[in-house]
Amino acid sequence: MTRENDIGFAIRRLSNAVRRDVEKSHTTLGIEPVKGINGWAISYLYENRDKDVFQRDFEEKFSIRRSTASRMLKTMEQKGFIERVGVEGDARLKKIVLTEKACEHHKRILNDIKNREKRLRAGLDDGEVRLFLDLAKRIIANMEDNND
To answer: Would you list the domain boundaries of the chain?
Structure first.
């Protein structure tokens, strides 16, 4: 089997192409880069903006330690993406709230994702997309089974 026929090599090339496209569009759109898990955190907060979300929710949702969650939230607060707001009845508890800056950022990112998804699906019919997603799930499961 040549390298070009390796599934891992194809996934790596695809991942690199998508990552480069994301970086290029963020530069073009003037979107402030959000590194690592912070983008997922903004998305999680945006989708749950009608609920009170606390640091422990991040720890559970993203399977991260308290110290990691604390650093992540501190960085997001310094960049102006979140605010920690006291909760009535418990001075120790602070809920995490997105700022308007983060909401606007998230909306621009969602639009960018929508456009990228359209390009990724170009020339593929619904059956081919379903087949790709099914194969990707099975490959992921294969890798997770071997990591136990």
So the answer is: 3-146
